[in-house]
Amino acid sequence: MPRHEVKFSVRERSIENRDVVFKVFSDEQRLGDLYISRGGVDWRPRSKQSAHYKFNWEKFAQLIEQS
What we know:
This protein has one helix at 57-66, and strands spanning 4-9, 20-26, 29-36, 40-45, 53-56. The protein is mostly beta strands.
């Protein structure tokens, strides 16, 4: 079973204006970055630097509830 690790940092700024970034790893290989903000959730996979997935909180809730 893969070993998962999640790292994050919070930059010094108003929490209203900055995302919290989680760096997600599996067996020491970076899977991508998860950005959490007031407006929603963004996933930026490591393998596709130009592609990322954005969800507002309502859409994110729908996706999670369907799983």
